[in-house]
Records
---
Amino acid sequence: MPGTTVDYPIVRGQPESPGFYLTHDAGGERSAWGAPYIDAECARGDESPLAINYGHHLSGSTMFAPLVQYSSRDFAEGHRTIRVYTHEKKIDFEVFAVDVTDASSESKLTDFADAAELDTYLGDKLSRCEIVLDDPTNLAPAWAFVTCTYQTSNSRTVVYVTYSTDNRI
């Protein structure tokens, strides 16, 4: 994430152990830091219609801690690009919305029948987001970056991104 300390490999969670990377690094070794990972329910991994990525919020601006800064409109506007490298390509994403949610009451959906269903789902999320920078249409694919935040005992900051216009498929 240019302009932040976030620069880590993202791994894919596995259905047989969905929380494994909360306590293990990208190489599978035990680690209190864990590793940023794509939700195990995202059946197509980084090519899922909505790839949900989790990472710990650790002190010292490590792991996904800088995501919390996106809850400031000024920061979000000044840090719109999130870059991901896969084995095949570089993808520039553009932040379009940020929300701080209560994980106890917020539901997630990771599988969609088509792009229209994803647009409807994200449209509902956008209607409740704290910061909306754009109201894009045709969001497929989209990603969400999620970390703990401490507004309440179970809050999460969620940064929603979609392909920048330069990489639209």
---
Amino acid sequence: PRFANFDLSAPVYPVALGDTTPDRDLTIVQVYSNNIAYLGDQTGIQVDISAFNLPNRSATVTVSAVEDGGGLETVDQQVIRLSEGDFFTTLDFSLPQDRVGLRQYRISVTQVSGEKSYRNNRKDFYIDVIDARQIIALLYDHIHPDISAIKSSLESNKNYQVEATRFRDFKEPIASFDLVILHQLPGKRTNIAPFVQRLDELQIPRIFILGAQSNYRLVNQVQDLMSYTPKSNASNDVQADVNSSFSLFTLPEDLQLKLRQFAPVQAPFADYQVNPAAQVLLSQRIGKVSTEFPLLLFKDQGDYKTAVFAAEGLWRWRLYDFLQHDDHQLFDLLLSK
């Protein structure tokens, strides 16, 4: 009043009205969660709860999924014990994501007698659940232990779904796949050139795995990373040397060292020619002799990627990894890369 712009000669005596004592209240202060989650994940959330002047009371904190019709499905609950004076706690919850789409959730705490307001006993939040799985077609012409090794390894990653089938039985729409692995295809009696042309049109990445049943002439036609000409029907037992200048992705140093010790795989005894545009990650080592023959190489075509593993026997690597380390982590890491 002393600064008011009016002419007043009388003194002013202000009187405060109301009770400054904080009201009894139980409040959901904040909910922390990611806006996006992936199908099959367990999404963690944190909930901050505060209360004042509600001693020796208990309350139940409930996480519910709000269904399309407005109904509530309880996901998780925790009971908290309130203390005298100021109370604050942070609770952790885990929400399973089993359905794609925008999911609405509600955090609620039970209403305690004597609260000032119940409007802050509830908060809604939303999580967009998306399906990030990559669908992989693993196609082959002949039964081979590599098929099981590759499928088991890739499916250890929950974001990969693998469909393994004989090439002649493959009837799925190829456009629905994110990657195609062709084990010893094209084969000696299986020309897949029209199929590969379709992959080109759809710009779908592919991996060729060579072996004794591969038709080298057709292999040389359907990819341009490398060409090879067998000198006989024989094969070489080869191990892997890691190319330190490879730049498309990185391998952990531990994996690079252990790869050199993995059991030999069988590569065609052949002359090899590598496209200068291709990048070689692994080259063949025969006994103690390092060669420039490619074992695993990649090429980015611009619209899609192509890789060639020039040997069969990946199942040996998976078993060797388990023999040495009691798990398949290194082998699985290599395939996921």
---
Amino acid sequence: LHYNRSAEDARALAAELNTKREGSCRIFQAELNDGAQCGQLVEDVLAAFDGIKALINNASAYFPTPLSEPTDAAWDELLDTNLKAPYLLAQAARHSLSEHRGCVVNVLDAHASKPTRNYAIYNLSKSALADLTQSLALEYSPEVRVNGVAPGAILWPEDPDFGEQQQQTMLEKIPLASLGTCQDVAAAVVFLTMDAPYITGQMLAVDGGRALT
């Protein structure tokens, strides 16, 4: 279980998981914006366990970047975290994943193909991650499967400009007319990890049908 600054939360979650299955979870700290730390993270995991059979890239930076106010720092944080880190982690773990005929699941965003106003750089980073997912699926075959899960509306953005009216407008565009849950996303990841040996290079939308509208 990777964390960056949320050490207390990571320790609490690890403790909870270890009560369910003793010794099943360990935590590892790394700043994923730093390429060297991505490689070290994989080395630390391999030193602690027998190997890596699945890599779930779900760390993400998410904040608005109005087109009138782009900054180098925003570009760097969004692209390094959302695109470069998944690439570097998959690259570092490739040998072990190949040995175990494992898989990679990248967490995308169903809204990347239907851009949200003021989130241009974020949308770009997730669209590029979808392309990277298919590239890795091709490059890493046949030993390693690589897929993506693209959540739709799961949690509302922590954005003061995204109020009740915007929320209602979004819900009206979702055929299932409700938010999804974190459990919905987790179930999709488990499916692609455990129950889909003949699926690779695919993006599984968990969006309540939003892509249909």
---
Amino acid sequence: ERPAFTCMGKTLTFHDLDVLSKRFAAYLHSRGLKPGDRIALMMPNLLQYPVTMFGALRAGLIVVNTNPLYTPREMLHQFTDSGVTAIVIAENFAHNLEKILPKTKINTIVITSIGEMLGPLKGAFVNFAVRKLKRMVPAFNLPNTVTVSEALKQGKKFSIMEFENCADDVIFHQYTGGTTGVAKGAMLTNRNMIANMLQIEAWMMTKLKVEEEVAMSPLPMYHIFALAVNVLAMMSLGARTLLIVNARDLDSILSAWKKHPVSLMTGVNTLFNGLL
């Protein structure tokens, strides 16, 4: 029952994450997705990310983390290069998916909103502000979509089919920045991720205590830095991770600092300079 992830005042416990990720995995299998299929995750730091990511892994799928700020051209390269057949995407970026969908193999589309997992009242308020006041959701038309909430509701009716899960199975296609050419998909295995997680643990355990840390994650979880440190290593320590939706919004970082006893924060030079 310990808190695992907190975002915009809403918290998921480790138990919540266990239950919801199982439901999402069962939903994916009910849609005909099989172990080894590729699923893209394209959203900022939201509670939906760890739920759908661990759900996809529990279903044996390969997670293709996608930068929400990608252009349609960049999306098309990554989706076709990786062979993506399913996607979880924030509605803010769905209009870009619409532009390239016919050129991809994607046939399972799960849509989410910024406020979808924040509770009925707060979620509705946040979605109204994002959609109507800030106008951050361009119009789109995508066929046969379901929301994350609908997928989790349907997943309760199904179970995860059995499959062999090996240490050397590829579980992530993590794309490089593409600074020296087109972005390349690094194939990361279970063993890769566990080894990296244990390395991080070994280095941090001289300073951190199991089940006592509060880690802030302004860096996006679709990036390998936050994925390895904030999602995997911090979870293995039983830490609470504070998700910052937009790292450029420094006020949200300062607000989280005031509300929570933060003991660890990941960041990059530009972020630390901005905070200074």
